[in-house]
Amino acid sequence: MILHLNQNRSFLFVKPKLPPPPLQPQTRLRFSLKARTFRVFKSTHIATLNNFSPVESKRVPRHVKIEAQRVLTDYLHSTRGYSFLDAEYISKNCPNFVKSLIANTFVGGNDVDVDVDGVAHSLRKFLRNRIGEIYKEAKEVFGYPKGFLLEKFREYEELGLSKSFIIKLGVCCPSILVCDHHGEFVVVLDWLKRIGIEDDWIVSYMSYSRTYSWKKMLDAIQLLDEVGYSEEQMHNLFKANPKLLLEGFGKKLRLFLVRSHKLGVKVNVMYSYFMEYPHILLNKCAKNLLRVIDILCAIGMETDEIARILSNYMHLFSTHSFKGPRTVISELKVEKAELLQVIKDDPLKLISMASSSKKKSPKQISVYDPRRHLDKITFLLKLGYAENSEEMANALKVFRGRGDLLQERFDCLVEAGLDYNSVIGMIKRAPTILNQKKDVIKEKIHFATNILGYPLESIVAFPTYFCYDLEKIAQRFSMYAWLKERKVVNPSLTLSTIVSSNDKRFEKYFVDVHPQGPTIWKNIKRLSKKNKNK
Fold this sequence. Notes:
Blueprint: E1 28-32, E2 39-43, H1 62-79, H2 84-92, H3 95-105, H4 116-137, H5 148-157, H6 163-172, H7 183-194, H8 199-204, H9 214-226, H10 231-240, H11 242-247, H12 251-263, H13 267-276, H14 283-298, H15 303-317, H16 325-332, H17 336-345, H18 349-354, H19 362-366, H20 370-373, H21 376-382, H22 390-398, H23 403-415, H24 420-429, H25 438-451, H26 456-461, H27 470-485, H28 495-499, H29 503-510, H30 517-532
Antiparallel strand pairs: 1-2
Helix pairs in contact: 1-2, 1-3, 1-4, 7-9, 12-14, 14-15, 21-23, 23-25, 27-30
């Protein structure tokens, strides 16, 4: 057998200057609160709000529902200006809306032991805060004449936007309700269409608990466009990181993008890092990377060398906070040229020398030798493990020995002719390779390539080869060679086919296939044991 490695909350419209007249039996106001939708129109039917589609939630206890209805009644009557009878009628005839309001306002907890006072407080806070946010972002809305707001919503519908889309935007982005503040919104929508993102997608990631700025969104899109991102790259980046679009770039991230672009870091490199290591998009990580650039510039490193280091180690540097360049140079008490050479030789040494959490003496720098002073964590960082990650914790348990010894064993594989990145891939697939002594690794490479005649690529494809006992490998290939001479097996089987088969399967396909096979196999093992005991 071959071993294969490999909230919706409805937007409550603004109260007109005069409270609405009492409801008459013949002509009632009917409210339809579908998900993200709120409509008001005349109807001769009984008022109903049951069309609202609530979010999935647990069963709401009766006493909680009654309290929620009471709070809604109080809000509509005291804050919105409806008569008490109308407010009470509305709150008692929208069970799904009340249930959704509770589910979205009071998240978590046991649905049986919910504190009624806590629910009431949360509901009041939500109802008041949302109106307050709208007032803060677009207070002009509260001075609109009757019908003007509905007309503005119809204008957005004419752009091809759905009612649900417009309503949620009205709550999350109140600025679009103001006449002079919708230009950026239209430009953002145009950009989203160009890069292949649907209107409804952006709304699905918006939260009623916060407001959003179209200017920040537009700045984020335009910055990516300026530094050379393709429309496909922008599409994939925003799809993978919705917050990046909705919240825009922080100042530090914007500055890092601009500076790295000027230094010569390729757009495709940045894009790959953002997709694979989204934590780099955090302002804190961008600040760390800016410090790295500051330090490297301060010690006189060339721009192309800085670009090379960032391109290779950006994801590792981003997880460490660094001291300022003057502090680093002052504390180390070394010449800039000496520090420059140390970092050129091993860029990751910058972490141990300049990190805010670590201190290094001049003596440690002057006698710097990566083979002697490389610790295990630094070695794993070089392999691409993220610091403090679960993957790093597991790797620390698997890898045995000091960091300098692990580095020696790693270098042994590279010096044999294997590609650096290929070796990293091999180690991640079969970590125990580096738990073997350097001489054992060399011997196994020699046996596979010089004795058996397999190319180095066969080891890359089958890294667990190093995990098998060399004596057992030799026994099996002795049997395979005997069978090839008699032309009873395929003469070009892969290394993994012969080595990874369990004993029972090996004997079935490589021993019992010939009448003399069992006898020969027994003799091979006997001679091997005899030679081992010499």
